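Two entries, shown back to back:
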Amino acid sequence: ALSQRPAINPVSGSPSSSTLSGDIDNSPASTTGNSLHVISNPAGLSLTTSAVLDGFVITGGNANEGNTFGGGMYNDGRGSGKVCSPSPPSRSFSTTPA
């Protein structure tokens, strides 16, 4: 249960037990080699608020190469009848420029 997890605060050094990182070149000083999006939810998934993304830290995304949206999490709801609005109630984003 969420209430049993430790508090998440990556700034003070208390990350969750799960960290999703786009820092694929393992170079924290530079975002140049990082993934465009750490999580990418395309419109075809039709995610609604019943899709819960919970209990992790998302870090190291760098959406700056032609697609400047969603460095941490990109939700694409474009198109007729398309939806993409997952519910991220307890998560933390850290260093994910877009």
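entry 2 starts here
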Amino acid sequence: MLAEWIAVDWGTSHLRAWVMQGDQPVHALQSDQGMGRLSPAEFEPELLALIDPFLAPEQRTMILCCGMVGIRRKAASMSALKIMGTAKSSSKKEH
């Protein structure tokens, strides 16, 4: 069965994906190729290797990703650290 959309949880040690039909998962997929084991050039090929059998070639499929995939870029990591630092310092001032 082809995916209406795909949910992805990509952590440091594992890549997990669920082939979705509406709000129901119809297939669960897993790989040990987490973000910590790959270079940025390997991200797309690794994801496609896992989900390709469930993609229709003539159709766009929405893929919703969460986990470490959003923080892998250095710029995103630095912004997250700055925000966390700001939140900590402002909470100290309030006490």
